[in-house]
Amino acid sequence: MEETRSTGEIAPAVSARITPEDAQYQDVVQRLFVQNEAPSTTLDHDRLKVNLIANVSHELRTPLSTIVGFGSILDDESIGSLTPLQRDCVRKILEGSETMLRVVSDLLVFSQLEADAYVLHKTMVAPVETIQATLKAMQPVLDAKHQRLEVKLDLPLPALYADGERLVQILSNLLDNASRFTPSGGQIALRCGKEGNDLVIEVADHGIGMAPEHLERIFDRYYQIRDQRLKRTGGTGLGLAIVKRLVELHDGAIAVESAPDRGSRFIVRLPVLRP
Question: What is the total count of domains within the chain?
């Protein structure tokens, strides 16, 4: 059975950015550097970097999660109705906060991966629930660019023995990448189904696509495509590198198909439990 759904399109009218540069943030960063100051010149530099990023990520994650939580309460109007302008403002806050949360998560996970210190926390995971959690987190980003997401699930989907939080990160990073390189008003497709002994997840866009030379490096850390047809895409250049590492930690594989002006398609294969 195939289930198909499309997300709604909401047009934010407010383009303000939240740039937390106040004294509180400066104080947090200063305290973190003091806490992580090397006790001696022989302290391993990579370990110091991992500890610093972990502490910074923790300090930022808590207030950002609070913003997202209360923003969601406002957005669903459970405590009162909003005017159209107020709704646009709330959704812009959610978009920015969700983006910052993903960046924080990427930095934390990548630092641990680089230090070979990351351990998956595997449980039995239902793919449908993972996809639903991802769509909820990504909706503000798609809404901001008036992009339509088509979801096709070839039900029933088999359970995975996997790290559910990291699966959400894999999907979120792939959808975020597709959104960045798809014009406003464009369409993105997410498909998930079982093929043989694998769960296959595909994320396809109708964006600018990639030349062959980019395909060879697209999963390299810090690698970013520059194209004058796009506005500044932002990001850390770590999203796809993290996706590849996390997929491989799950004993899976990832591939990409793309051509200039024809969009891109990322295919993730994850092994399912054998009966």
Answer: 2
